[in-house]
Structures are given as structure tokens and as C-alpha cells.
From TrEMBL:
Name of the protein in question: pPIWI-RE module N-terminal domain-containing protein
Biological source species: Nostoc minutum NIES-26
One matching Pfam family: pPIWI_RE_X
Domain pPIWI-RE module N-terminal residue range list: 19-361
Length: 889
């Protein structure tokens, strides 16, 4: 159903606020900063590495948790003028703070053997007299807009989220069942000390208990293991493109491990709340090498135990008992990389989010005032008719891809490179049987099958770099190179990542793309067939026989008044191979470019996605800026330092082979490449798409919200990389370019949304381009919402993890359905888009063009993607880093 408005789950921030306490702050004495940075230089030999203050700030916050509000991560920079931490009182024991600092110094720098007598004297001379609390007077006006810019004290970015969570944790939060209008679950929340100062996180504790009957391993006996999960709430302060602040509200679930860990393949996050503390702090539990074994990364636990806490425990205690709920509490966070499944699935449903949001909003308004309320609704731009033709074209793509491979007798409705060679490196007969009919569906006749054999065997795990080099040589020795005049796609059947969970360094998959690129092929891989999976219909005759049987069964059921659920005729295995094949075809240059026809809109518009890819060279991180270009004629790409646009297939092969040189981080180089190379050479109407979080602080100032302009691009003219001298260049200087700046959900800046009916009631999904209701459709910034994914065809409004909902289908309609904490939660999502265009352009048309490429541009995915197809491809080039630029597991 099409809805004309949506509501984002975010709160307005009032222009004035009254603090319920006096605010004080403590500054790090300059002598302390000099000493700490000197010690850090002794330890690392580098001036720019800050002292390891995370554990110090955590220890201070949870040991003085009634008074300290939040610390500042940058307070120990030599040039920083920020306060160390903020508090409600100036009566905090300064001797206690000095004691914590000295213990921290002793633990953090105990192995230094180069301390001078003067250094030791300075450490011993740290005194409570060095510390002085200062009362902070903050402006009565929280924020204002002056000359189009937001004016706000930076302190509010941390203070307001703190006030929000402080209100919620002050007493149990009552959740109300909307079907009965009764309180059903009071939950006590606790603060978590997190690194990002503008994100406040709280968890419910004690956790929720969930049990489930299951068979014991290798036995017919049943057991009923107990698992645990908490509710996780996050609040973050941001501002929109118009400068108006808002608070994002993110509600979810945090699951805990409740069984003894047998092995750590990767580090696991542990949340710890010491005796007499109301807060949790996090640290990492990981394998630290043969000498230390499994231990805590960092010094938080050692520091807590040195501060006369009653709690005495070590990493082995947490490893053996990952969940503990006494005066001393801890929990190891469950992640999907853990081989054992959890009774509870991740995420909440829309009904659950609404329940939490209502409860939190009532508490916030009771404590802080009713000025905290929903931000304004967003209204649909009247451009949906522009998507009719691309939607119709893309429906043919979807229809083709969904068809069974044994029933296809038509050509693909999208471009596939001619004379493509398909190679399968198999580990099973089932894969060999399936690959030819699947290839035939996509018009591929040249199919070669080899056994993967030893190329897929575990590596030794002793020296990862050497193992990778040896495995790549084996590929070159055992497989022939691809013909230079023919594109080649290689699919590999290989055991999944979880098979190598005991030691990720033994997993050979990181070698595949670099090895095959050196042989002139792009590649993708898929997992072998599961023993419980069904068989496949390999011929048209088998397919037609099965269709006849199904039609007869449906007719018989209809006569009896029964309903037969439609089942897929493809096995899960064939779905996996076809998904891998589609992904590989995209790498080989297959594409679909939707037709977008609008009055006064340029014809033959090209799209370019620009992205900065990290290269992990030893301990140094370098970067390779890349650009991918698409139009009706095909897909090309280029990298920083590359003069010409290369065929996308060839670009990936060169990139994975190490043909492009990465650069050390340099804002000027990135800015000059984009302006003086990409923009300067653009000769046809082109929209450049950027992931804001990837480049806005790495050279492209025009991606920063405060520097966004509708027809101008911010440019730094300063020659000094430490300073900025900003000028604004009119887009008319580059008459063919347009800019699409996309903020993705992983930034915490993008709230989830709900569609609204005509009465303002919250509903489910609706795909569209929406603008703030107080602004016109040409305002220049938008919320692009996703349609309901096909995997959620059953709907999400009839599911809940909190309350029973009425069944709406089949003969049990109206009866209550139990809450389903074991179901995968899902909520309608979208992205925030801002545009910088030419003077005569229609903003809502270009926003719809970007939305079109999110919804109707992919062949490997049939649902909405975060980024338009061209930027999605640029981000995906991360998978084609050369082996020397891949981080060791």
C-alpha cells in the first residue's frame, strides 16, 4: 500500500533546557599531559599515539558512578582544551582520582625500562592538589540557527543523550501492552560506558530468561538449556541538513553467552559491572598468544582489581562462566560468529519499537519536559509516476531471476558479456550437476569443471602471509590462465567460514580472488549442499512433471476447502549457487541500468560511485580512492593515480593483482583527485554518489552537513593540512556534475521509520522519497525509504517479541499468538540523501533518480540496497584488495 507520510523514530531537541543539577568539570593538568604523552612515546616510539586512557576513563566512571556523568576521549591530547570529565558535584575525592591514575600508570607502563629518575619522581609527585574542579555555566539557549548555521555548545552533544538515559535508568521502565493498555513488563536499565561520547547506551539487567527443549548432541535424550538476553537502547545527538538537532532512538536486543566457551576464534566483548557499581563497562576477551593464552585485551580488569574492589576474577573465570549475575555481574556478548545457536534472535519488530518508544518518551517528558517529542513527519514527493517505467523494466528482471532454471527458454533481460567462460572448482557431484543448467539459464555455453582438491584445503595456520603466498602459487601451478580475449568467471565450492572458526588463519578463502585475478578471472564462492536439503529438478521434463503434480494437489485441496502453501521448487543449494553466479556475473560486467524519463531531465545520465578503500600494509593503513561509472553503455572503473577508465572486469583483476598503488592518508590528494580529475573530465550529465561517512572527514568537505549547499561545493584552499580555508565553488564551474551524498544507517544518524495512514496511525513499509513536512519538495534533502523485502512477505506488523498479537490469517484468525523472541526482528529502514545540483535542476526528480537506482538497479539482489548500484559496486571493490593489503585474521 502507498502511504503519503512517514514518521521517523527521532526526537526534537528543545531550544532551552533546565539542568536538574549543578554542572562541574575537571581538566587534565598540563604537567600530567606532558608526562603521560612522554611515557607513551617511550612505549611506542611515536608522538601521535595517545595514552591508553579508555580503561582509565571507564574505571573512573564506574567507580564514581553516582557523580561522574561522562568523560571526554580527547582530553589527553597536548593541544586539547576540552575538559577531562563532567560531574554533578565538586565534592568527589581528588585523592581517589589520583589513586586511580597512579594505578593506571603502574599497569599501563610497568614494562618500561627506560624511565629516568626525573620520570619516576614526576609519577610519585602526582597530587590531589594538581586537580581543580570548575563549575560550568552553559548557555541557557541550547541551540539556534543563525545565517543558516547551527549554533550550539559542543557539550550538548554528550550532555543531552546523558540526560535522556539518566531519566530512563532512574527507576524501572514500565512497558505497556497496547492491546490491553496494561503494564506488562517493568525493566531496570543500566548505563554502559562506551567509547563514542555522543552515543549513550543502556541495557536491561537482569536479563530475560529463555528456555527451549532440544536433543542432546549425539543422543536421543532431551535437555532444556537456559539462554539470556537484554534489551539494548541507544541514543545519539545529531542535526539535519537544515541545522536542526534531533535525537535518534535505537531499540534492540543484546544476547549473552550462557554456556562454557570451548574456543575463541575472534575476540569477544565482555560487559562487566563491579560490586557496588550501577554501570557496565566493556572490554575484549581474546586469545593473546601462546604465552598469555586467553586474556583480557587492555588493562580495564587489572585496573579494577588494583582499586581495592572486592571482586577477584580472571579471564579463565569469564571463559568458563560467560554469564554471571551477582553483586559482581558480567556477560559475554553473543555474536553470529559463535558456532552454537542462541534461543533468541537479534532485533525487535515495529510493534516492539513502538512500545519502547512510548515508554521512553513518557519518562523523558516527565523528567525533562514535553518539549522532547517526535520530530515532524516527512511527506512523500509527488514523483512516484517517474518510477513506473523503470519498475516495469525491473519486474522483468525479477521475473526472469525467480524462474526455475529448468523452465527458462528466454534470454536474460539485462546485459551479460558475450562469450563468457564459466569455471567451477567443485567439491561435490551435486554442484557439477547443477552448474550447467544454471549456466544455460543465463546464456552461458562455455562451462569447465575442475575439482577444487587441495586448493581448498586448510592452510597450516603457522604463518598466514607465507601460507597465502604458497596457496596462490599452487593456483598458478594447477590451473590454466584465462584466455586474454575472453572474460572468465570462476565459482568455488568451499566450506563456510564457520568451519574454520577454531583458527581463521587456516581459511583459504582470502587467497581465492588474488590468486584467480593473477590467472585473469573474477570469482565468487558458495557453500556445499546441506545433507537435509532437498534434491533439484534438473531437466524441463522433471520440472513439468512436478508442476502437474502440484496443480493436481492444489485443485484437490481447493475442493476440500483447504489451502496449500506455495513452495519453492529450488533447493537451498541451488539458490546459493545461483546467488553466487549472479554476484560473479556482476563482477564480470553484467548490469541493468534503469530507464528514467522525465520532462526537463537530461538524457543519457551517467552515475559514478566514489569510495575510499583501506589497504592494511603491516601496521600502517593506507587507502585507495576508487570510482565506478555506469550508464547505458556499460560499467567502468578507475583508481587514484590511474589515468583512464578501465572495463570493470579488468579493473578488478588489476586491483587484486596489486596493479594500483595505495596512498597514505592525505585530504588534499583525495580532494584534488575528485575535483581536478573526476569532475574536470566529466563531459556528460553525471551524478556522483558518495557514502558520507567514508569521505566527509577524509578530504571532501562538501559532504559535511554544516557545509552542504544546494548549488555550491565546499573546497579547502589551505596549503597546510592542519588548517582549513574554506571557499565555495559554484556547481556551474563543472556544468555536467551533480552530487548525491548518502548517509547510511550504520552511522546512528538515520532513524528507522514507520509509514503513517491518513489519521497519523503507524503502519509498516512504504518505498518512496520523503521531505520534511515544514519544507517544500525542493528542499534538497530527503529520506529515501525501502520497500518491504520479499523475505518479509508475511508482514512484520503481526509479529512481536514482547506481547501476544491476534492472528490475522487462516482458521485461527483472532486468537492470540505468543510473543516470538526466537524470530529475527526487522524494521522499515532507509537512508538520508542530500543533493547538490545545477541551478536549473529539479531536486525531487534527482532524488527520485537516486531512489530508482537503489530499488531497481541490481541483478544480484532484488530488494532495496543502501546505496545506488554504482556506489554499491565501488564499496564492493573492498573484496578485490591484493593479498598484501588484506588484514591478517
Amino acid at each position: 500500500m502507498i502511504y503519503n507520510s512517514i514518521q521517523l523514530f527521532a526526537l526534537q531537541v528543545p531550544t532551552k533546557i533546565s539542568l536538574p543539577f549543578d554542572l562541574y568539570a575537571l581538566t587534565v593538568p598540563k604537567d600530567w599531559k606532558d608526562l603521560f604523552c612522554k611515557l607513551q612515546k617511550y612505549k611506542h616510539g611515536k608522538n601521535y599515539v595517545l595514552p591508553p586512557i579508555e580503561c582509565l576513563n571507564q574505571a573512573l566512571t564506574i567507580s564514581i558512578d553516582d557523580e561522574i556523568l561522562f568523560p571526554s576521549a580527547n582530553a589527553f591530547k597536548l593541544t586539547a582544551k576540552t575538559h577531562w570529565f563532567y560531574c554533578k558535584s565538586n565534592n568527589i575525592s581528588r585523592e581517589h582520582i589520583v589513586n586511580i591514575v597512579k594505578n593506571w600508570l603502574n599497569i599501563s607502563f610497568k614494562d618500561l625500562d627506560c624511565l629516568t629518575t626525573d620520570d619516576i619522581q614526576k609519577i610519585h609527585s602526582l597530587s590531589a592538589n594538581d586537580l581543580e574542579f570548575q563549575q560550568i555555566k552553559i548557555p541557557e539557549t541550547v541551540w539556534s540557527i543563525e545565517n543558516g548555521e547551527l549554533k550550539i555548545d559542543p557539550l550538548y552533544y554528550s550532555l543531552i543523550p546523558y540526560l535522556i538515559v539518566s531519566a530512563i535508568v532512574s527507576e524501572p521502565l514500565s512497558l505497556i501492552d497496547p492491546t490491553r493498555d496494561q503494564v506488562f513488563e517493568p525493566l531496570q536499565f543500566h548505563e554502559c560506558v562506551v567509547e563514542k561520547s555522543n552515543v549513550q547506551e543502556i541495557i536491561s539487567w537482569p536479563p530475560i530468561i529463555i528456555t527451549k527443549n532440544k536433543k542432546k548432541k549425539d543422543s536421543e535424550e532431551k535437555e532444556k538449556p537456559t539462554h539470556y538476553y537484554s534489551f539494548l537502547l541507544r541514543f545519539a545527538f545529531h542535526y539535519n541538513l537544515n541545522g536542526e538537532p534531533y535525537l535518534t532512538c535505537d531499540y534492540g536486543i543484546r544476547r549473552w553467552v550462557s554456556w562454557e566457551l570451548s574456543y575463541l576464534s575472534t575476540g569477544k566483548t565482555v560487559y562487566i559491572s563491579p560490586t557496588n557499581s550501577k554501570r557496565f563497562a566493556s572490554c575484549k576477551l581474546k586469545y593473546m598468544g601462546k604465552q598469555r593464552g586467553i586474556d583480557f585485551e587492555g588493562n580495564l580488569v587489572n585496573l579494577l582489581q588494583s582499586l581495592n574492589f572486592k571482586d577477584k576474577f580472571n579471564a579463565q573465570d569469564v571463559f568458563q562462566t560467560p554469564y554471571k549475575n551477582n553483586d559482581l555481574a558480567w556477560g559475554v556478548v553473543y555474536g553470529n560468529t559463535i558456532s552454537r545457536s542462541h534461543h533468541a534472535e537479534d532485533g525487535l519488530f515495529p510493534k516492539d519499537n513502538a512500545i519502547f518508544h512510548k515508554a521512553c518518551l513518557e519518562r523523558i517528558q516527565n523528567v525533562l519536559g514535553e518539549e522532547f517529542c517526535f520530530i515532524e513527519p516527512y511527506l512523500r514527493c509527488d514523483n512516484d509516476k517517474l518510477l513506473k517505467k523503470p519498475r516495469s523494466e525491473y519486474n522483468k528482471v525479477k521475473e526472469f531471476i525467480k524462474k526455475h532454471f529448468a523452465s527458462i527458454n528466454t534470454s536474460p533481460p539485462f546485459y551479460i558479456p558475450p562469450n563468457l567462460k564459466l569455471v567451477l572448482l567443485s567439491q561435490s557431484k551435486e554442484a557439477e550437476e547443477l552448474i550447467r543448467p544454471l549456466a544455460k539459464k543465463y546464456g552461458i555455453d562455455d562451462v569447465t569443471i575442475h575439482s577444487l582438491g587441495a586448493l581448498g584445503a586448510e592452510m597450516s595456520g603457522k604463518n598466514w602471509r607465507t601460507d597465502c603466498a604458497d596457496r596462490i602459487k599452487e593456483f598458478q601451478k594447477l590451473l590454466p590462465p584465462s584466455p586474454p580475449s575472453q572474460k572468465t568467471l570462476t565459482l568455488i565450492e568451499i566450506l563456510p567460514k564457520k568451519h574454520f572458526w577454531k583458527d581463521a588463519r587456516k581459511d583459504p578463502k582470502p587467497c581465492f580472488r588474488p590468486a584467480l585475478a593473477m590467472l585473469g578471472s573474477v570469482t565468487d564462492h558458495f557453500e556445499p549442499k546441506d545433507e537435509n536439503d532437498k534434491g533439484d529438478l534438473l531437466t524441463e521434463a522433471e520440472f513439468n512433471d512436478e508442476i502437474t503434480k502440484l496443480e493436481a494437489a492444489q485443485a484437490a485441496a481447493k475442493e476440500q476447502g483447504k489451502f496449500v502453501k506455495k513452495k519453492s521448487l529450488k533447493s537451498n543449494f541451488s539458490h546459493r549457487i545461483e546467488s553466487s553466479l549472479k554476484s560473479g556475473l556482476s563482477m564480470a560486467g553484467a548490469y541493468f541500468y534503469p530507464t528514467f524519463e522525465v520532462e526537463n531531465f537530461p538524457t543519457d545520465v551517467a552515475s559514478v560511485g566514489v569510495y575510499k578503500i583501506p589497504f592494511y600494509i603491516g601496521e600502517i593503513t593506507k587507502y585507495l580512492p576508487v570510482a565506478v561509472r555506469m550508464d547505458k553503455s556499460g560499467v567502468t572503473a578507475k583508481a587514484y593515480g590511474c589515468d583512464e577508465w578501465l572495463d570493470f572486469y579488468l579493473f578488478q583483476i588489476k586491483m587484486a593483482s596489486g596493479a594500483f598503488e595505495s596512498i597514505e592518508f592525505n585530504k588534499k590528494k583525495v580532494q584534488n583527485w575528485v575535483f581536478n580529475n573526476l569532475f574536470q573530465e566529466t563531459k556528460q550529465p553525471t551524478i556522483y554518489c558518495f557514502d558520507a561517512d567514508n569521505l566527509r572527514s577524509h578530504g571532501l568537505l562538501f559532504l559535511q552537513k554544516k557545509l552542504w549547499r544546494k548549488h555550491f561545493l565546499a573546497f579547502d584552499t589551505s596549503e597546510n593540512p592542519k588548517n582549513e580555508d574554506i571557499t565555495f565553488i559554484p556547481t556551474s564551474k563543472y556544468p555536467h556534475i551533480r552530487i548525491a551524498n548518502i548517509i547510511a544507517p550504520n552511522t546512528t544518524e538515520v532513524p528507522i521509520y514507520r509509514a503513517c495512514d491518513e489519521d497519523g496511525n503507524l503502519e509498516g513499509h512504504t518505498a518512496g522519497v520523503f521531505h520534511p513536512s515544514s519544507k517544500g519538495s525542493e528542499c534538497g534533502y530527503y529520506y529515501l525509504s525501502n520497500q518491504r523485502p520479499e523475505s518479509r512477505s508475511g508482514g512484520i506488523l503481526q509479529e512481536s517479541k514482547l506481547v501476544p498479537l491476534a492472528i490475522t490469517k487462516n482458521d485461527k484468525t483472532g486468537k492470540p499468538k505468543k510473543p516470538k523472541p526466537q524470530a529475527q526482528g526487522y524494521n522499515p529502514r532507509g537512508v538520508i540523501l542530500s543533493l547538490t545540483l545545477q541551478e536549473a535542476d529539479c531536486f525531487s526528480d534527482w532524488a527520485t533518480f537516486v531512489q530508482c537506482q537503489r530499488l531497481y538497479g541490481m541483478i544480484q539482489y532484488l530488494d532495496a540496497t543502501i546505496f545506488p548500484e554504482v556506489l554499491h559496486r565501488a564499496v564492493g571493490l573492498d573484496a578485490y584488495r591484493p593479498i598484501q593489503a588484506i588484514r591478517e585474521p
